[in-house]
Amino acid sequence: MISSIPEGRYAVATSGAKTYAYGCMTRVGITPPPVTITADDKRLKAGKPAPDPFILAAECLGFDPKNCVVFEDSPSGIKAGVASGATVIAVCTSHTRSKIENCGAHYIVENMERVKCEPVGEGKDMKLKFTVYL
């Protein structure tokens, strides 16, 4: 998924501390993006389930959260994404569907292979088209 999203068009917003988050991403071959919001970010007033991490990430990217898509695997993260105004795709990777299905996500998928991203247009007019295979 990440390789299909152009640089500068995605962020990570996690409840993990910076060292933990960067370590996890690096271990699975993901280069942490320039916009990575972690639990110990001094700019945050509140963490998940408050929407602050997603709002801050969107602002840092230069987008309105309402024009963003959040991928989340935890109940508190799903609630935070919904509260931010973003479209939320819940992923059943760390919690069962029954634990996350009533958290307000717009879509629920079993894993990230169920979502495809395609850039449409170029430059500042570029949009990202997400297709969700339920």
Helix content: 25-40%
* Count of the separate structural domains: 1
Mean pLDDT: 96
Low-confidence stretches: none
Number of strands: 7
Largest sheet: 3 strands, parallel
Gyration radius (Cα, Å) is 14 Å
Distance between the termini: 16 Å
Considering the protein shown, what is the CATH homologous superfamily?
Answer: HAD superfamily/HAD-like
What is the overall silhouette? globular
User: What is the helix tally?
Assistant: 4
Give the strand content. Answer: 15-25%
Pfam families: Hydrolase
Protein name: HAD-like protein
Organism: Gloeophyllum trabeum (strain ATCC 11539 / FP-39264 / Madison 617)
GO molecular function: sugar-phosphatase activity
Secondary structure layout plus pairing:
Blueprint: E1 12-13, H1 18-27, E2 36-37, H2 52-61, E3 69-72, H3 75-84, E4 87-91, H4 97-100, E5 107-109, E6 115-120, E7 127-132
Parallel strand pairs: 1-2, 3-4, 4-5
Antiparallel strand pairs: 6-7
InterPro entries: HAD-like_sf, HAD-like_SPP, HAD-SF_hydro_IA, HAD_sf
Protein name: HAD-like protein
Organism: Gloeophyllum trabeum (strain ATCC 11539 / FP-39264 / Madison 617) (Brown rot fungus)
Could you name the key traits of this structure?
single chain; 134 residues; alpha/beta; Rossmann fold; 3-stranded parallel beta sheet; two-stranded parallel sheet; 4 helices; 7 strands; globular
Characterise this structure:
This is HAD-like protein. GO terms for molecular function: sugar-phosphatase activity. With 134 residues, the protein is an alpha/beta fold. The strands form three sheets. It has a three-stranded parallel β-sheet, with helices on one face. It is built from four helices and seven strands; from the N terminus they run E-H-E-H-E-H-E-H-E-E-E. It is globular. The chain has a single domain (2-132), classed as Rossmann fold (3-Layer(aba) Sandwich). The two termini are 16 Å apart.
